[in-house]
């Protein structure tokens, strides 16, 4: 199980790792440009806190997101 590295908040890369999806597939599934995900994960840009919170909630609590982790 992944846990947040800094103060209890998960970063985009940790959130994406929970799904097991590539950047391209994560981008497609959640409607976020792949370049934006790349920039967030590389630290060139910072994801808005509400985006991290919403994605973490969706992935942890919605059955379709969890199913992808198990496949």
Element order: H for helix, E for strand = HHHHH
Number of strands: 0
- Oligomeric organization of the protein chains: single chain
| Structural class by helix and strand composition | mainly alpha
Q: Which radius of gyration do the C-alpha atoms yield?
A: 11 Å
Strand content: under 5%
> Outline, from the CA principal axes?
globular
Report the uncertain regions.
1-5
Intertermini distance: 16 Å
Whole-number mean pLDDT: 84
Topology of helices and strands:
Elements: H1 12-19, H2 23-30, H3 34-42, H4 49-61, H5 63-70
Helix pairs in contact: 1-4, 4-5
Describe the structure.
It is a single chain. With 71 residues, the chain is mainly alpha-helical. 65% of the residues lie in helices and 0% in strands. It contains five helices and no strands. It has helices at 12-19, 23-30, 34-42, 49-61, 63-70. Helix 1 (12-19) runs parallel beside helix 4 and helix 4 (49-61) packs across helix 5. The longest helix has 13 residues, at 49-61. It is globular. Residues 1-5 have low confidence and may be disordered.
Offer a concise description of the structure.
The protein has 71 residues and is an all-alpha fold.
List keywords for this structure.
5 helices; about 70 residues; disordered N terminus; mainly alpha
């Amino acid at each position: 199980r992944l846990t947040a590295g800094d103060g209890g908040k998960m970063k985009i890369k940790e959130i994406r790792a929970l799904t097991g999806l590539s950047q391209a597939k994560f981008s497609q599934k959640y409607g976020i440009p792949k370049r934006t995900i790349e920039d967030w994960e590389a630290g060139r840009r910072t994801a808005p806190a509400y985006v991290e919170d919403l994605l973490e909630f969706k992935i942890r609590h919605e059955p379709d997101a969890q199913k992808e982790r198990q496949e």
